[in-house]
Amino acid sequence: MRVITLKEVDSTNLYAKNNLHVLEDRTIVHALSQTSGRGRLTRKWIDFGQGNLFVSFVLKPSSNFDEKYSNLTQYLSVVLAKVLENYGLDPKIKWPNDVLINGKKIAGILSETVMQGSNFKGLVLGIGVNLNATTEKVKLVEDKPVTALNLEIGEIISSDKFLNELADEFFENYDEFLQKGFEFIKSDYISRTSFLDTEVCVQGFNDTKKGIAKGITDSGELILEDDDKQFVLTIGDILC
């Protein structure tokens, strides 16, 4: 594992993708400041400034793409939840990979695959974690409730310490995850959810579906039931 720390960058994911050809497998790109972070479904990641975590994992697990790699965002959500639990918190995962504290979002996760023609070159797994913010700043986020770790535990957080904890937890079981896929983390994932057996709205790229969240498949997909019909959703975000 190698960590590259940048003073400022537009996006750690974009930097990692642009330099993927020279970055080694298991390199972590860490920025002290990020100006144009992005989330899933083209959303912008809200940046609370320095003292927060902006990192991307450069991963080159093989020369061919494997469907298990699609679940790395869910693997990272479990990893983050375990780290936050060490701070005395009770994080919950909202499908597919949002991590919440007391119903408020604390992190954003985005995975991007890099292909050259039909050749798989690797993937970039980015995460932004709100570690230090003021109550006034989090209230400015209008689309959904958000929080920061310092607000939850009442003390300033060291981003370097948190990054080390996150990286150690990530790579501890990474190789086994690559072998077994989502099934390896399924019980850990489900035990940290709060949306199952409740009515949810799921936004995809082009539509929104509503129903009862009945379960999670062995591939990490959401099973949604509406009027005795079941849908298996691969992509989307739970809105409510």
Topology:
Blueprint (H helix, E strand, L loop, with lengths): L1 E5 L5 H7 L8 E5 L21 E7 L12 H14 L6 E3 L3 E4 L2 E2 L1 E10 L2 E11 L5 H4 L10 H5 L5 H14 L1 H7 L5 H6 L7 E5 L4 E9 L5 E5 L2 E5 L3 E2 L2
Parallel strand pairs: 1-2
Antiparallel strand pairs: 2-3, 3-8, 4-5, 5-6, 7-8, 9-10, 9-13, 10-11, 11-12
Helix pairs in contact: 2-5
What would you say about this model in short?
The chain is an alpha+beta fold. The chain has helices spanning 12-18, 72-85, 135-138, 149-153, 159-172, 174-180, 186-191; strands at residues 2-6, 27-31, 53-59, 92-94, 98-101, 104-105, 107-116, 119-129, 199-203, 208-216, 222-226, 229-233, 237-238. The chain is globular and about 55 Å long.
* Spatial shape: globular
For the record, the CATH class of the largest domain is: Alpha Beta
Radius of gyration: 17 Å
Structural class: alpha+beta
Instruction: Provide the CATH topology of the largest domain.
Output: BirA Bifunctional Protein, domain 2
> Tally the helices: what do you get?
7
The sequence of SSEs as H and E is EHEEHEEEEEHHHHHEEEEE
